[in-house]
Amino acid sequence: MNEITHQDAQRAAMLLMASIKSVAFYPQAHPAVRQPLDELAGIFNEMFQERSEIHLGVVEGVLFLGNNLFVAPNSSVAELAERLIEKGLFAMTIVAGVDAGDLFFFASLLARKNFPAGLVFEELSKKGVTAIKYGIDEERDENFAEEGDQAAVRTYHDALNAVRGTMKDIESGRIPASDRINEVVDNMVSLTIKDHTTLLGLAMIKDYDNYTFNHSVNVGILAVALAAYLGMDRETLCDTNTAGLLHDIGKIKIEKAILNKPGKLSGDEYEEMKKHVEKGAEIVKEMENIHPRVTDAVLGHHIKYNRSGYPEWARTRDFDQLAEILAVADCYDAITTLRSYNSPAPPKTALDVMRRVSGTSLNIDLVEKFAEMMGEYPVGTLVRLDSNEIALVVKPHPQESSEAAVKIIIDAEGNTLEKPRLVSLAGKDGGRYATIVALVDPLLKNIDVSRYFLT
Length: 455
Ligand SMILES: [Fe+2]
Ligand SMILES: [Fe+2]
What we know:
46% of the residues lie in helices and 11% in strands. It is α+β, with helices and mostly antiparallel strands. The protein folds into three domains: 6-134, no CATH class; 147-374, Hypothetical protein af1432, CATH 1.10.3210; 382-453, no CATH class. The strands form two sheets. The chain has a five-stranded antiparallel sheet. Strands 9-8-7-6-10 form a five-stranded antiparallel sheet, with no helix packed on it. It starts with 5 loop residues before the first helix and ends in a 16-residue tail after the last strand.
């Protein structure tokens, strides 16, 4: 059975949200209502070709549809998640045969304010709608990702929330609580100690709508992975991870117009932007149970290896090595993320760029260690195999390690697989599944690499 694709799941969630909005204003026969509902019913029916029911709901704040988790949702999917949470509607089952009429009643009930899940399903049964049920009967959706991956995705989501919560505290004038951050750091560090590559794939999730949160979590992951690879102790790993999550927290105090400006910043604007390191350090310093070297690293993450960075007054000051680790992680995430003023670089190109600036911006040894950790074909690299398939590297060191793994996403005939196939290049019994022969540019193949790390 093929899994429901992320694209279809996202489209369904967006159509459901669009329907909820339009039923509040228009009658059932109006095209603004009819069209999204018809399309939604069509998508569900397609999905029912291969299954008899579909599960929809919210787990730990994350919307799921079938096996798809929306960890970094677009605004419409996030709105649907909020709507379901508000109603206490955490799990439901949609059964084969659901039609646009059923979905119309369902959307109308979800559109009503202060109308909890219990009442929604009471009304549905009064209307004779049996294809949308409350709860999930089965113990577990057989298509859910494996336990380890689930834990990683959940931790990633918790980290996003912890950063978001910290920023909210600052916005409302409070000293941010540190327990949320400390709790998630503890989990991230435990996962990293077990296997420093577990979270690396998640750092390839790029969410342009929530860049600051997403970037903070990615830098936290990359920094802690590097610290673990360098063999640092648990306490240092925790501080590195915390520093990564909080390194740009000072941006909350920078004017939004400057922060989100698509073009180049003017001289004055750049001066303002630079203040995020000092503002961030001030905030972190006030937080309870955060080690002073975290504050130090936040202050020094743009100081640069040759001390040509900022804050200018701190150029002659000693900084903890954490600041240099952060700079490496920060640089990698920035280069591999699509921003309005540059194009996303594949991981290997990012490493080349980092090598060019090592010795000036970045610490040479750390860049080399980072590149070594990422391996010959870093996580998130799209490759062609000698089997003529196109695959995405999801575990590093595919040439050397038996742990090496890729997801086949385009088969030898050039067809995109609906369900990517996870294989170990090393293969069983010491044989090889296939060998990587070339790098492939995801833009040329129109592949959004990041979505393959969510399921
Ligand atoms: Fe920064
Ligand atoms: Fe940053």
